[in-house]
Structure formats: C-alpha cells, structure tokens
Description:
The protein is an alpha+beta fold.
Amino acid sequence: MAKNLPQVIKSGETETVEFKSSLAEREQILETVSAFANADGGTIYIGIDASGKVVGVQLGKKTLEDLANEIKSKTDPKIFPSIDILTHDGKQLVRIVVPAHPTKPVWVVDKVFERVGRTNQRVPAERTRQLMRESQPFQWDQHAIAKAEISEIDFRKVRVFLRAVEQERNTIFEGSKSVAQALTRLHLLRDRKLTAAAALLFGKNPQARFVQARVRCARFRGTDSVDFGDMQLIEGTILEQVPEALKLIRKHIEVSAKITGRAEREEIWEYPQEAIREAVVNAICHRDYEDSGNVQIRILDDRLEIWNPGTLPPGLTVESLRGTHPSRPRNSLIAECFYLMKYIEQWGTGTNRIIRLCKEAGLPPPEFAEKAGSFVVTLKKGRKRRELVEVLPLNSTQLQILKYIKKHKTASTKELAKYLSVSDRAIQKNLQGMMHLVKWAGKSANDPTGKYVLISDSQ
C-alpha cells in the first residue's frame, strides 16, 4: 500500500487527484488523462468511487497492458503514464500517474480536455489554439519518463560511452566521475528525471520501457518479402543495436577480400559497407519512437532494404533528399549522442553520402521512398562485380576444402573435418578466410542440415 494513500482518500478529489470506481469508465479515464496532461499532471485512482469509498477492481492478466496501450493509442501526442497496482483494506486499486506534457494540447480521440478544479472541461477551439501557441517546441526523446529512477541506467554503459567520446572527439567529459552529472550535461536528465533518450541509450533494459525499440533482421529467399530463411531480433540499447545489425547483415551478404599495399586483409562487402552503416544508423537514430513498429532490415536476393518507422519530418521530401537539404532530426538528444560517438558526422548529409558510395561501387542509385508509414532505403545489386585486386591466397587446408566442395557441390563442417582429419574448430577457422569463395546455405546460422556451397555456383 502507498504510504500516503489513506490521506489521499481522506482528502478526496482535487485538481490533481481523480477517483474512478471501475475500469469500465474508460471514456472518463481517457478524458482525465488529457486534462491532467494539459495542466500540471495528476493521478487517477481506479477502484475508489466519487465519495471516497474503496470498492476495488478485478484485474486480468493483461488488464494493465491493455489500459496502457489504449491510453497511448487514443492520445495525441501519445501519453506514456506510469500504471501500477496498490492494495488497500485487502482490495486492489489501479494508480495512473499522468505527467504534465510539455507539448499542448494533448488530444484524446478528437477532443481536448483541461482540469478546472475537480472537473474535466472540454476545451473550446480558441483555448485549443492558445495552448498550441503557448506550447514550446518539443521532441519525443526529451520527455521525462514518469517514475523512472536513475537506477534503471547501466552506469558501465555510460562510462564506456564517455571514454569512447573522449577518444573520438576529445570533448568535454574528461574527468567527469558522476554518471548523473554526465547525463545532465548531455541533457538526458530533465528536472532530475530520466528522459526517453536516456533509457534508450543507456538503460539496463530499454525494451521494458519501449518495446518498439528493436531491430528485426531477416534474410528472405528470392526477391519477395514472403519466405524468410533466417530472422533475428536485436534488442539492447540503441547504441548496441548498430554493430549487432551490421554483424547480421554481413553474415547474409557476399563479402570478398583483397590484399592492401601493406599486405593486410581488407573486406569488400556486396553493398558499400559505409552506405549500409549510414542507412542503419539513420533508421535507429531518426525513427519515430512513438510508432509501435520496429526498424526492419530485409535482405533479399537482389536488394537490401532498411525500413525506418515513421515518415519524413515536415519540410523534407523524398526528392529533396537527393540534393542539398536541411537537417531536421526527429530525436535531437539521441542524434547528439550518435554524433559524439561518430555514428553520424553531419546532420543532413547521410542520404547524399549513400548515393555517392553506391555510385563509386558501380551499383544502381539507392532508392528512397515512403511506404506504409515508414521511410525505406533500398540498396540494389548491380551486375556481378569481379575483383580487380589479388584475393587472399589460400593455404593447403583451404585448398583441400575448396577441392572437396567443388567435387561434392556442398559440404558440412563435420564432413570437411572428417575428410581432412582435423577438428570442427579448425575447419571453421579456415572457412572464415574463404568467405569470398564459399557461403553458408542453411535456414539459419544454427541449422544442423545447413552446408557450405561455392558462391559461383549459387549465382
């Protein structure tokens, strides 16, 4: 039981406290959410009637989840209240804490409400326009999460980030020992409360707060997004998602190798590696986190697609992305941290860089499009590129592996290990240096029936 609950019940409804006897009063609950968000915030207690009598509520397995989803789906801007369960005199109550929203007005369906004394009043058109004029510019990643504590932050991740920034940018964080101080300097704490950006960048479990903050990566068979052979879901912080996404893409595209002037190995990806990185970073950094969808990476036989939830910000068009255009970051706090990490360099130049990299690689121009509420970057294959540089020489074991696969068309790790009388681990190590010649043909990376084939045989 909340320590101050008896006093709240005794004091009754106020400008910041509302009682509802039942979860069935959804329309009135939503009106109160709008009213509190448009004022100074407030708390709704469900299971207490208007007279202050505790009647309790019956809760199902998904009651709170459904309630939270309904509030988010029917408010604009979307409200993310804190919802929990209290117990009083053996009866269960639901508490909804609604923070004041910095962007006003907050609509519920097609109406706006404001708190006047102990009642919710529908806001007339002129007052709605006034709220709009008074509202300050605000971005989603800046909003403070209700009841979020700094204990949700992984301090180790923050310190790793700060060390990386100092190395990359030689910037202001040198000597900073306090994580709270560092987050404040990054504007990731708002009135000593965690912002959404803080949770996404450094949270111990970001998906516990924002389930949509995921990346889905799938390798499809053929040229249609229908039948996929492998699909993986990437979670963790959004800073961690970038390298993990690139690792998965590399696994499913052709990667050749060459010897540089210093006799070092250099990988050449089927699509320009930096173009892929730019598109992935932009999707994770600039996506609309109010959208319930995930960033999607679709790898098909003839193209690579990166789907970014949310359409382009106002003032930008698909056509303008091919020329000089202004930067309009949807999530400026996230963008600033991505910049400090050198994930992005200059805002507003990413699409131009992707175009240039594809041209230099001899590939068709990339496509930019808005589809089904998402912004999509598509990189297309060109004609089969032949290496004009010397590939890495094969050792004797690798030559035997190549000979075996040429003869039998396919080969598993165990087959090769038995043929050459070496360990599976030795085979895997040698195969890693042959990925410009062979590739894995299996339903997934751990498919026990999967085998290696020659790249030239699979074209």
